[in-house]
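User: Could you check the structure of this?
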Amino acid sequence: MAFKIIFLFLSVIFFLGVEATPVEGVEEAAPVEKVKVSGILLERGTRSPISRKVFYVVETEQSVRTKRDGTFSFNIEPGTYKFVFPISGYERYETTLEINPGEDIEVTFRLEPVVLNPYRIVVQGERHKGEVSVQRITVEEASKIPGTNRDVLQAIKNLPGVTTLSIFNGYGSGLVIRGSAPEDSGRYVNEHSVPILYHFGGLEPVFEPELVESLDFYAGGFSAEYFNAMGGIVQVNLRDPREDRWGGYLNLSLLSSSFMIEGPLTDKDSVALAFKRGFLDLYMRIAERMGLFGEMLGFSTYPFYYDLTFMYVHRFSNRNKLKFTVVGSWDEVRVNFDNQTSFQKLGNTASSKTQFIQLAPEWHYRQGNMKNLLSPAFDLVFTDNNAGESAYLRNFFFQANLSQKMEIKLSDIHTLKWGLRFLYGYYTLDVNLFAIPKEGEVAYNPFDNEVLDSTKGHYWFPGFYFMDQITYGPVTSLLGFNMIYNEHDRQMTFDPRLSIRYNLAEKWTVKGATGMYSQIPSNDERYEPWGTPGIKPERSVHLIGGIEYNPIDTILLDIQGYYKWFFDLVSRDDPDDLSSYSNQGKGYAYGLEFLLRHKMTDHFFGWIAYSFCISRRKDLPDAEWRPFDLDINHNLTLVASYKFNKRWQVGGRFRLQSGMPYTNVMYSDYLYDSDNNFTIPSYFGPVNRSRMPVTHQLDVRLDRYWIFDKWILSTYLDVQNVYYQKNVVGYQYSRDYNERKATTGLPIMFFLGLKGDF
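Assistant: Sure, the predicted structure tokens are below.
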């Protein structure tokens, strides 16, 4: 044992004392060559690039950051590695990748979002500084409100200050904003009004909701930028086509089918094309074959409609771009009635054809503190409505609009804004129709007031506005005016306006606005032989005050009160001459509005809106005050939509509003029109003294999404009037006016849609 210990000790000493020498023929190991790994990080389903985010390689503890377009590139030694993607807003994702020596690889990683937004639009428009009664709704909010059936414009009627009552339950009937008639409010798409917003008067909008970026609603007290309106303003803001990649959607619903494709042509050019085809003719064919129309009518042309939208954008630079928007629409129907029609002045065939196309270029330019927007627009509109030899309207007009806006920021607190508007139109008119009934008229026989007109002519309106915006400490003021010249009546309007916002504290704002608002009378009121040339514009004064409370970014409490005075209102002044008008009418409206809004977050949006309004008018100086035809005093709207996860979303909307005024002509004397076999009440009593019953309705919507690597499949079910409430919207009287029957809105309705986004 001792010998072994001595031997081991000597061996250690020996090896420690020997100098290591290289072995001949053996070389040192060469360094391992790294491999280049590049690729792109995308959102699963939408294929949106996930920009400026970091993921990790576990074995090397290496972090990789994506670029703005979602691409990345890094070098690593060959081997097998685990990649981890702990990115906020996306499901945690891990994957293993084997990297072989000598071959560079390209990979695509796709992350699934926690909350899905197939619209891919983030609205970051600047707040409307100085505006008092403005609300902005994003397209995702607007498209998900129950009862809208993808019609984003219907979102407006859920805000305070708006009432609407229609047998069709829709926006197409017009909006009553703070007591003003529907024709008193302006509607704009980007910089211009569209000749026709809806197919067949209110069935479906002519442009796709996916092209909309946001909606701005001005209930009153709006700035001098907007001309020729006394009520409110609805502004539809269309977005630019996407620039990162090609994509689009295919939509199929019970009402229509549509598709859109958009993407970049070059680094500076992008386009979008959308097309819709309605299915109304299909349903009419089915109903006719089932015998639902009997012998009453038949179609020689079933009702159909198409529309098309094309957009093109060229970016010269980040501050200089050119945009073209083309919108077109075509509606047509022709129907044959039986030979038992009682109206001799109407034929047995009725037809309607409406076509229009609008081209609207926009040039956006920024240089330093100056912004400029130049936008002409060109409209071609053709209508042909025919119900016999004594009832037809054929109209063609060409209209050119020019909008020029400029803004200069003089300092951090002082900004000047001004602009020009010019409208020129040429028209041809061939018409044989009846005088149109006006506000408050009860006893009316249209067949005794035929108007024959076959003319051509032109019209033009130049306008100018100027605004001075100053922010001094907690106060922001917006002082401005606009002018417009009416060439036909040789008259000019001048409307000064002022709005002020004062930040009481970090979360509280007091606001107020006042100003003059003018509106040129409608064509049938100021052109012969329909109306009286030379009548003045209608005028109003707005007085508005309110307070806002923003406890957090997503919560808004807005309370407003207002008073509006109307004067120079146009009304008929001779019961024996329905083409005689004067500016002897006047009126007023006042009210209170309440809005508690939770703006859209990843999971929820909704609001509570309540409006109280009283509106009165008199048509002649010695007449009695009476309610406006659309004087609806109380309106309560509740909207809520919740995303349970990225696959399910459910929402509801409840509306409750007081009844609309009407004139009860029960038991009235009447006159008999033997030529047309119908009666007209001889009523000379108070107007709009009765009210229809309270209306209420519940709508529910359910959305479901399926996410694939390169596209998203979604479906929705929109149920309107869930509990089948029969809301009264009018009355039909018997021939002797001793009986009447209520006309109610549409019953429960189901809208089902299927859509694929790619």
